[in-house]
Amino acid sequence: MTTEHDIQNAIRVAVSRSGCTIIRTNTGRVMTKDKRMFDAGPPKGWPDLTGFRHSDGKLILIEVKNERGRLREDQKRFAEFISQYPVLYGVARSVEDALRIVEEK
């Protein structure tokens, strides 16, 4: 089974070559030197990849899953929320899925 990390990397390369800028959205919690917890990154449910299409500036948000991956509840809520906006959003399990998302009109 392909790891989500490997799929993300392949998607980042392919989407970048198709006239877009795309980055991995890092999230997580870290402890500072003075022992405080710091939340790094966007809110829960935010997709793995964030970017924009050069031709029109449209925001791109891609949630990456492998063959068996399922959306968590917070990811489902995000998908429902973002569907009301003119954003290129989708779940990609392959480079081909991601290219379909970014080529959407």
Word description of this protein:
This protein is an alpha+beta fold and 105 residues long. Helices cover 30% and strands 28% of the residues. It is built from three helices and six strands. It has helices at 4-17, 73-82, 95-102; strands at 20-24, 28-31, 37-40, 49-53, 59-64, 88-92. The strands form two sheets. A four-stranded mixed beta sheet has the order 1-4-5-6, sandwiched between helices. The chain has a two-stranded antiparallel ribbon with strand order 2-3. Strand 4 (49-53) and strand 5 (59-64) form a beta hairpin. It is globular, with a radius of gyration of 15 Å.
Task: Give the proportion of residues in helices.
Answer: 25-40%
Query: Which structural class matches the secondary elements?
Result: alpha+beta
Helical segment tally?
A: 3
Which spans of ≥5 residues are poorly predicted at pLDDT below 50?
none
Query: What kind of oligomer do you see?
Result: single chain
Radius of gyration: 15 Å
Q: Provide the succession of SSEs.
A: HEEEEEHEH
Mean of residue pLDDT? 94
Fraction in beta strands: 25-35%
Q: Main β-sheet, in a few words?
A: 4 strands, mixed
Order of neighbouring strands in the sheet with most strands: 1-4-5-6
CA-to-CA gap between the ends? 32 Å
* Anisotropy-based shape: globular
